[in-house]
Design a protein that fits this description.
single chain; 130 residues; alpha+beta; five-stranded mixed beta sheet; 5 strands; globular
Length: 130
């Protein structure tokens, strides 16, 4: 029988960290300004190969900046209808880390605030009974 990967396994195998800036960003910003924002907002190195997401003021635009071995690459999406939903963040947080599965669902228009996990059986570990 073929076993399908769980979301948790898919998130672990991506190996790329994904950062979302919680404040809105001027979508006129280019590579260099977004790289500076990535450093300032997340405290992470923009040359690390991680993804840095920036959302426009109206919520219908999203830019993703990443370093691709020999230069920056920029992915830009403008929705014709609707907005990109942000996750709930702690007050004062400048950025939040997303899992690959969360990013994929958000890009597909799935509002994760209305998604619930069903109760599942979880075997208690003999070493860690919590």
């Amino acid at each position: 029988m073929i076993g399908l990967p769980s979301l948790n396994e898919m998130d672990r195998t991506s190996g790329v960290r994904i950062w979302l800036a919680t404040a809105t960003t001027d979508m006129r910003c280019g590579f260099d300004r977004l790289a500076a924002l990535a450093q300032t907002v997340t405290g992470e190195d923009p040359l690390s190969g991680q993804l840095f997401l920036f959302r426009g003021r109206s919520g219908d635009r999203l830019k993703i900046l990443w370093w691709d071995r020999d230069g920056y690459a920029l992915w830009y999406k403008r929705l014709e209808e609707g907005v990109f939903k942000l996750p709930k963040v702690d007050p004062g947080a400048a950025s939040v880390q997303l899992r690959a599965s969360e990013l994929a669902m958000r890009l597909e228009g799935i509002d994760l605030s209305s998604v619930r996990r069903s109760k599942r059986y979880r075997r208690k570990d003999a070493k860690n009974p919590s």
